[in-house]
Write a structure and sequence with these properties.
single chain, alpha/beta, Rossmann fold
Amino acid sequence: MPDWLHLERDGVHLACLDYGGSGPPILILPGLAAHAREWAETASWLTDRGRVLVLDARGQGHSERFPDDVSPEAHLADTAFVIEQLGIAPATVIGHSIGGQRAIMLAGGRPGLVRALVVADSGPGDDDDAEVIVKAVRDDLASWPAPFESKEAAVEFFGGPSLKAEAWADGLEERDGGWWPRWDLDLMDRSLREAFVGRDYWREWESIRCPALAIRTLVGEDEHREMGERLPHAQLVPLGHSDHDLHLNRPEEWRRALTEFLDRI
């Protein structure tokens, strides 16, 4: 069974799920409103290649629910702190979605902490439609009929029995007679807005010197191509049609792309 590790940085509680495994450390940074147990399927085979840990970002999962600071810089400092405190540097860092932006910041700004970088459906570019995207994400999260009556009701809402629906439902907490998300809507909106609107991470991306892999599903083809142009040693893998949660919707292709990369570093 995985074990929860608990740390505190500047009064903010950080929770990291240690799935175990032997070999080089691997740290996963989930996306917005996600949680560490969402990565259980990936960890089930990735632990054959290293010690797998998943960090719940401040504001979600088992970490501090209502931190004052949700800036990208605060998330960067949290990630560096966890790596240093757990003594796992340099680690292979896998970031999904907004977690990918945090991973890019870490690999570009703190190279001694990162052995290799994997960016899953995330990119360093800004977006002209950032405000529209932030609103769409907020509307989607706001549509959750929380509290759910049961985990089974949540699975049905998320599309019926599937790896993705069950993983999302597994992130809910039981309290006050129902099942609730482990995040606050306004705080998720602020986290995404601070990370996404009017910001890019090209400077950090171009500073990366470790092996890097960028796997794309919804990230634009033009941005993905530019990532390769600006960082020629990065490997780019288009995964084909999928929604944003590629590790849950395309698990076999995700596993193949990731393991082939890890075999080469």
